[in-house]
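Kindly review these tokens for lecture notes.

. . .
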Amino acid sequence: MSDNDVGVDESAAEAPVDDEDAGTDGVTEDEEGFESLEARIEEATTDELADEVRTLRARAADAERSVEERDEEIDELESKLTRKQADFQNYKQRTERQQEELRERATEDLVGRLLDVRDNLSRALSQDEDADIRPGVESTLEEFDRILDEENVTAIEPDAGDAVDPQRHEVMLRVDSDQPEDTIAELYRPGYEMGEKVLRPAQITVSE
């Protein structure tokens, strides 16, 4: 070895690192925290521990109440949603019924006004069998009846001797007749009904 070579002390190179210089004594932070907690518990008095337990229990009770309040809020919101949905369904059904009733009423009003037209056509056919317009009137009347049939409109035409139905018959006169007393003597004008609704009662005379 030359005089310029620097000597290295092998024992110094292998010397252990000081724990304080490494910044730790081999204990983790979690272990230090646990040991610190143990130390505080050992140092605490019975009253202090009791206070700590009461505090923890109070916090737990507060948390439980908070959860219950949230559950109640959720239940209330779900109940409101259910009511709103039910209200909407009821409103929808009510609106649909009203629209259907309006359509039916409009149809009934229209048919009611047209029935007089049909009566006039029928009278025209019965008055002049040789008129030139008869074929046209017959064709019009047939088309008219076809439309009424499509709208579920049927004639009320009771026969002589039938019982009087106050809901479907309008008594015009009481007359002498060969028919049994208080039965229909003659049909004066046909009535009409749409489904179960009477649009116009049949006008009749009743036997005395």
